[in-house]
Amino acid sequence: MRTTDCCDHGPRDEAGRRGPAYRRALWIALVINASMFLVEVVVGAAAGSAALQADALDFMADAANYGISLLVVGMALHVRARAALVKGVSMGLLGLVVLGSTVWHAVQGTLPSAAAMGAVGFAALAANVLVVGVLWAYRAGDSNMRSVWLCSRNDALGNAAVILAALGVFGTSTGWPDLAVAAIMAALALQAAWATVRQAVGELRRARVRQPAGAGRA
């Protein structure tokens, strides 16, 4: 019979049963994100683009998140929920870093390279569409799995926005479209962080309620 309790072995607690396939998906996502981080951190700095630099930080955080997820696949739900809590906090910190970078570029009046933004934006979008496709089956899992999906979704949306920002920079000859996209990406990171932390905390509370007497020190 179908159950919706996060502490039961229902539809939201399937990481253990789907372990091998999920691990493969995470490894693919980790390699793609780590590679794109290296590309964007170099090109973003050279092009003076806040949006590309924000996206590079996002790729770095996601690669770390996928690594954490690989470590906890198949473990108890409360362990995966704690990992998701850590990832949610890291996403929130990333959002704050991106906001700070956006303000710095605004003060400096940086004019980024539209051509570099567009080229890397298209490459990053293709990479993240691939990651989203690989992780699509795991978008509605527990908080740990959902945090992975939210990271990938935000990346794909961010890449599309970078491409639009490149067009805006080219058309206006100002850096404001780049700054606007960086701010939007920061907001997406903060929203995903809140959603992940809220679900993880709820799962931890339910796990404690259902924990057998005497098992607290296990």
Description:
This protein is mostly helical. It has one domain (19-210): Alpha-lytic protease prodomain-like. The chain has 6 helices and no strands. It has helices at residues 19-47, 50-72, 77-108, 114-135, 143-172, 176-210. The longest helix has 35 residues, at 176-210. It is elongated and about 60 Å long. The two termini are 29 Å apart. The model is unreliable at 1-17 and 213-218 (pLDDT under 50).
Q: What is the strand and helix layout of this fold?
A:
Layout: H1 19-47, H2 50-72, H3 77-108, H4 114-135, H5 143-172, H6 176-210
| Proportion of residues in β-strands | under 5%
Work out the count of structural domains.
Answer: 1
Q: Which value, in Å, is the CA radius of gyration?
A: 19 Å
Ranges with pLDDT <50 over ≥5 residues?
A: 1-17, 213-218
Q: Write the H/E string, N to C.
A: HHHHHH
What is the CATH fold-level name?
Alpha-lytic protease prodomain-like
Shape: elongated
Which structural class fits the helix and strand makeup? mainly alpha
**CATH domain class name:** Mainly Alpha
Largest beta-sheet details: none
Let me know the average pLDDT: 76
- State the end-to-end CA separation: 29 Å
Number of helical segments with 4 or more residues: 6
For this structure, the quaternary state is single chain
Q: Number of DSSP strands? A: 0
Q: Would you identify the CATH architecture?
A: Up-down Bundle
